[in-house]
Amino acid sequence: MAGKLKMMVALSLTTALLASVVQAQPFGYGAGPGWGRGGMMMNGPGRGRFPIIDADENGVISAEEAASAAEEVFVAMDSDDNGELSMEEYMTVRMGPQNGWNKERQAAREKEKSDRFATMDADKNGSVSQAEFIASSKARFEEADADKDGKVTPWEWRSQQWN
């Protein structure tokens, strides 16, 4: 009886110890909470945000998935929750690693991003409304959908991302 009790105590302690180690693991890439599914950055399977936008995980991004992702991004960027993005709000959100190793490339990407903001600001009032942001996102989706079948494949996605 004492042997069984010792064994039960040892198993319980081992289980508790292992559970605490697993619980202490940091958030990161891979399956799990947060942006896991392949990583938000461009170093996981599916490159960048593709696996995040592809909500049903069928290997293509539908118009609905793209529209939902655009709404989520807008809400995340709109830090003062006023329904409009200022240039500061838009530029604050960083997409990609941007570790600062290549200062020239980083400056060029920031310029491209600033230019995108100016293009989205259709009424030229210095801010981008949710409607303007969604319209721009829709145009990018349609541009990426090379065969015009209403879906964006990984090949179409990569072609647009690198141009």
Can you lay out the helices and strands and say which pair or pack?
Elements: H1 2-23, H2 50-53, E1 61-62, H3 63-77, E2 84-86, H4 87-92, H5 103-120, E3 127-129, H6 130-144, E4 151-152, H7 154-161
Antiparallel strand pairs: 1-4, 2-3
Helix pairs in contact: 3-6
Notes on the structure:
With about 160 residues, the chain is mainly alpha-helical. About 55% of the residues lie in helices and about 5% in strands. It contains 7 helices and 4 strands, in the order ααβαβααβαβα. Strands 1-4 form a two-stranded antiparallel ribbon. The model is unreliable at about 5-10 and about 15-45 (pLDDT under 50).
Write out key terms for the chains shown.
163 residues; 4 strands; mainly alpha; 54% helix; two-stranded antiparallel ribbon; globular; single chain
